[in-house]
Structures are given as structure tokens and as C-alpha cells.
Amino acid sequence: MTSRELVRRTLDFDGPPRVPRQIWILPWAEAHHPAEVAHLRAAFPDDVVAAPVVHRRPLGVVGDRYARGTYVDEWGCRFENAHGGVIGIPREPIVAKWTDLEWFRTPDAALDLDTGAIDAFCRSTDRWVIGGTWVRPFERLGFLRTMEQALVDLVERPPELLELLARIHRHYLREVEIWAATAIDAISLMDDWGGQQSMLVSPRVFRELFKPLYREYADAAHARGKRVFMHSDGHILEIIPDLIEIGIDALNSQVACMGVPALGERFRGRLTFWGEIDRQELLPRGTTADVRRAVREQREHLWAGGGVIAECEFGPGARPENVAAVFDAWDELGGGAGAGDS
Questions:
Q1: In a domain, 311, yes or no
Q2: 132: domain CATH number?
Q3: Minimal CA–CA distance to 318: which of 310, 329, 326?
Q4: Is 155 among the domain residues?
Q5: Residue 53 near residue 113, CB atoms below 8 Å
Q6: Counting Cβ atoms within 10 Å, is residue 297 exposed (0-12), middle (13-18) or buried (19+)?
Q7: How many whole angstroms separate alpha carbon 134 and alpha carbon 272?
Q8: Residues 209-239: pLDDT tens digits?
Q9: Rounded to an integer, what distance in angstroms lies between the CA atom of residue 83 and that of residue 67?
Q10: For the segment 54-91, what is each residue's pLDDT rounded down to a tens digit?
Q11: Is residue 94 part of a domain?
Q12: Which domain holds residue 306?
């Protein structure tokens, strides 16, 4: 069975013979543990990969997204990174005053993709390919205004906020449409909606302003036969029903902070959990036995003859042996019916 078929059967709860896997290896891990990274890639090859993002025109970015120092992205947002190995934080707004909307433009060059190169890559692999979409309307608002000001904007709701969101949305919807016309298997969305114990904004704000945007992205992807994968960090339990309703097929979230049994009780068999294993405490400070218990917990509560992709992030502080233990444990558990499967 190819990786592509393995992932499809997982998303469809169609009893794949094993759990698909994907390691997210951050530049920090490449720099600090190169030998271990090479071993992990050889021992546990990914079933899910990202398509190459090939643009026909220069994007005008400055610096390296993950390097220490300043990085300027294609929207003009400046990220300051004090450490390296992870992305930095934007401190200065691009749209500082609402009158700045008179000159502000979204980056058209980012939509000028070499779709032939993307299609060629998809034809060259039997793995599940996720498009290189960076669709993040909530975070983009924060990048353009600073997150502090964006949260104020969401409370005050000036008409200029709605205009800025509309421009962001038109850009991202076009991005989804372009990628969905290629040979990829899925598009991806990514907005971090949660803090450690609750959402960063009320579910009402999400439902009124952002859920309709996500629905349009999902509809555009599904119209082309593509699945929709989404990443969102933090405690987002309150909006998972909304994400299921609008058609998110696989969700990458911090399941540990929301409680794996609680997630399984409400959403098992309704959504594929695209990872993850706790990278805040378990991967850097836990033992391999702790990691194996966490994997067994996910298998018991989330697996329903499908519905789990074994994703794990190898980032700052993670112990290489713990990352390896994640995939060892999943391989030992295999596929087939899970506890309570019918």
C-alpha cells in the first residue's frame, strides 16, 4: 500500500494497516542533532510531505525565516528572532494607521506559482502531498497590525478592520484555488487560536468573523477533490465542532492540553487528529516510557479504524530518543480496529 492510499484510508476511517506518520523537523533539530535527524528520516520515512513552493517572480523577502536576526516576509512584515531555529515575532505594524490601507497591497507575487513544477513533484511521489499554502487570516491580521492591536481591533470592530480582513481573505482564497487546481492531495490552513487553557478570543468572535472565511477555503478545496488539513496550537476545544462542521478533514493541535480522553469522547471517528505528542513537557523532559504511554493513550481514545496521523515535532529542547520512541510505539501498535471500534 502506498503512503497516499494509507493516508486516504486513515481519513476515511477505512482500517489502514498502520498509522501514517510525519515528523516535523525544525531547523533547531538539524543544527543540534544532525546525526539523530538523519537516523529518524531513514528509520521512519514520512507518509505525508509538503509540496515545493516554486514562484515565478521574486517575493522580495529579506533574511531567513528561522535564522537569528530580522526576517521580512512577502507581505513586508518584519520578524525579530532572538534565538534562531524557530520563527520570530513581528513588533512593528505594517498597517499602523487605518489610513495606511490607501497604499497597502497584498503580495500578488505569492500567487504566481509554477504549477507545472508542483504537479511534476506530485507525480514523482506516492506519498500524500500537502500544498504549500500559508493560509492564516487571524495570524496575518496580527502580523500586519501586531497581535496586541489586532485583539483590540476585534473588540472595537471598526469598518476598516472588516476591509483589511476582506483583502486578506481574497488573497488567501485565491491562493487556495490556485493550489487546489494542482495535483496535490490536500491544502493546509494554519492559525493559532488557543492559549494554554482557553482561546485567545471568544468563540463568538471566531464564529462571526473567521469561520465564514474558513468555510470558503474548505469549500474551494473540496470542490476540487482536495482534503483540508489545519494546524492550530493551544486550547481550542470550543471551536473543534465548528471546524468539523465546515469540513476540516485533519487537525494538528496540542491534544495534551485539551485532554486526549475528552477529545476522544467528543470527536473520535468524526475528525482525523494529525498529531501531536506534547512538545512542551513530554518530549523535552519525559522518559521514553512516558512517551509510549502517551502514544497508547492516543491509540485508545482517538483511533477508530483510522482518524490519527502520527505527527511529532522535533523542535527546541526535544530529546531525540523521545521523538524516536513516538514512532516506535505507533509502529508496534499497528492499525486495525481500535478500542470500541465497530
A1: yes
A2: 3.20.20.210
A3: 326
A4: yes
A5: yes
A6: middle
A7: 20
A8: 999 999 999 999 999 999 999 999 999 999 9
A9: 8
A10: 999 999 999 998 888 999 999 999 999 888 777 888 88
A11: no
A12: 3-55+113-333
